[in-house]
Amino acid sequence: MKKIVILLLVTLLLTGCNVVRIDDQSLQGIIDSILESDHSLANVSFEGYKYYLPKGVSLVDKSDYNAILYDQNHYYYLYVDVVSYLHEVANNYEVNEESYYSKRLDYNGKTGYIEINLSNGKYFVEVMYHYAKIEAWVEEEDLKDAVTNMLLVLSSVSFNDQVLATLIGDNILNYTEESIDIFQPKREESEFLEYEQEYIYRAEEGELPSEDQIQMDEEIK
After folding, report:
1. Distance (Å, rounded) from C-alpha 51 to C-alpha 42?
2. How would DSSP label each residue in 168-187?
3. Contact assessment for residue 192 and residue 135, using Cβ atoms and an 8 Å cutoff
4. pTM higher than 0.85, yes or no?
5. Residue 202: closest CA among 60, 53, 77, 59
């Protein structure tokens, strides 16, 4: 019965239905509802990996394995760590008792963590799961919505081992030099705020490509 309820909840979240109110759930409840389902939907695909963008979230820019997502309220910085995935790097996150919220994630054989820190009146949210990570600065009233979006994206990430081995095999040193340690939270020291400000400026200037153009550019590469 529990599995049926979880499946229905995630289905409603993914389709954008407003019947389920996440405001009525705790952060722990939202995490369990989404990650226990282990859904495999995908509507964004690149060489070697794919993931699902929930309704209301769009891809506004992409560079290599980094991407900027936007949900009409906040920007999200996504990084997919294909090198750590191929090398099966173990998750070494330790719960931070001083954080607003800190939890190690372990569902269906996939691990990660969520850590939320309050700084200057805003919440810096870091969620890492299954070799991908999303960061965002959000206000308190948007915290649950942001965590929901982040978890829906990260829980849907899937990899194509054969394609990644071909892409990265000959360039492993370059990727290793450029990679970041997603297993260690940045907390308030993150450089994400600089990325956010840059993309807000570019959006206002009309310099950002469309989601279709981003995927078209990737197919040409």
Report:
1. 5
2. HHTTHHHHHHH---TTS--G
3. yes
4. no
5. 60
